[in-house]
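Field: sequence (string)
Field: structure_tokens (string)

Example rows 1 and 2, in order.
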Amino acid sequence: MMTRLIWLGLAIATTATAGGRMEEVIEVNADVTVNVENIAGEVQIDAWDRNEVRVLGDLGDGVETLRVTGNKSLVEIEVVLSQRWNNHHVDDTDLIIQVPRGASLEIETTSADIIVSGVEGARFVAETVSGDVEAGIRSKYIEIGTVSGDLELAGAADTAALSTVSGDLVATGLNGELSATSVSGDIEVSGSVIQRGRFEAVSGDVELIVGLAKGGTITAESMSGALVVILPREVSTRIEAETFSGSLKSDIGEVIRAKYGPQKRLETTAGGGDGRIRLTSHSGDVRIRRQ
């Protein structure tokens, strides 16, 4: 059974019951903020050129309601579990949501995957524990965090902060200010021109295939993971690199080995030296290459 509601007023407050399907269309502002919470299943959000939020929901067993509340400026969509349900065995609830292209999004899930495309709002925030995140978006500010899920982001942002614990992280096309952190997952960044970048991993590898804006900075650190930086031939930057017990190789400058002990370091300049790149690893290998 499907519940279908169309709201054109200033405020809405509706629910759909468990085990059913729901469709709802809400008239909103072009820059509406949409908040979504789901436990298990999937949250898929696509942009369209209408000032409406459309919600399609397939509700799993154990879900008490799908609660939709808000007004033209803010819409909140929440999957609410029955209090009698065992949270460790929650059936999937799949949400397909269409939002105005200029919408800002805040999404929170436990194991539900997050898939977002075409959104260009001012702010995008997504958090999940074990779900994967796949996003193709443009926004002034992007913040995405996972624990064990993988993270894949393509688009553009003035500022982006990305983090994962054991999942892999892949980002393409992000210019401006970018930070990416991981514990055991790998980090891969490409197709970007970095103004300010900070990248940290413990045992995961970090690979950066990026350009550097004039006066830009990149800092990358690892404990045991490898650091690989591939730069354009015309890059203009100072480069400092150091590893305690890993290997250090560079297409730019000369590596200096410590007289006593395994430590290796590099201090050199490429082009006019406008920017600064600093790479540090304890036992991981460090590679600096030119495209």
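Row 2 begins here:
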Amino acid sequence: MAQRNYKSYEELQFADDFMFKRVMADPEICKGVLERLLGIQIEHISYPETEKIFENAPDSRGIRLDVYLTGDSTKYDIEMQAKLQTAIGKRSRYYQSSVDLDAIGKGDSFLDLNDSMIIFICTFDPFHAGLHRYTFRQQCEEASDIYLQDGTSKIIFNTQGTQNDVALEVIHFLKFVENLDAAGNDEFLLSIRNKIKAERMSIEGRQEYTMFQMVYNDMLIEGKELGRTEGRTEGLAEGLAEGRAEGIETAKKVLIETCQELGLSKENAKKKLVEKFDPENAEETLNRYWKSDL
């Protein structure tokens, strides 16, 4: 029997992207997470239409690619980042553009754009400064008291922070992200833990998770095998590099084909390319392999 190289569904934690998105589909939990992290009161939240939320499986009840929220007229995109990212700035830029495109229709005025906020919850410190929270807004370099006021902001939370820069309940939440046993007597965190336990028993969730992992692993195996074959054939460092590049290119091609087979939109296939590979050249790669007649 082939060795499984990914967690079982029952092993998934809050920091695992699949489980995070399923849990955050609960509006009360999602609202509570935002209120705790941002220190604000939100009257209510609403998700965009189902098609934009659930697109990782053939039917409309798959997991979400992103978590889009509307609360107090602000658009939110909240993401879990459990793997070290070297291009987190470009990743946030891409998500920002996606939120804006979803928020305004063709022919509408840019003045109709709501304020928006991109939130990353990282299990690593992307800037190695020891902060639990990094906030970024458009600021003039020549005059630091002048802001562009474009209504956008990006906040990166970090579970590895060491400084006393945020409220204790935020630090408590970030510790909980990495360890469910850190819930203590916190009723809100206990409600999240109970939700995770319930999700682990979901037959539907387990089936979707298993299907997606199988497809993704097949994609990686095909790409890596082609890379090794090409490298051996050349027998030189240059040939090995070309073989690896070919393998990566094949993996991208298989990913796009898989997205189409699962019924994902072209825009969400592009987001998958950005998540799994690199923000650079995603549009060009998508146009090269996307089959418009499917």
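free_text_note (row 2): The first helix runs from residue 17 to 23.
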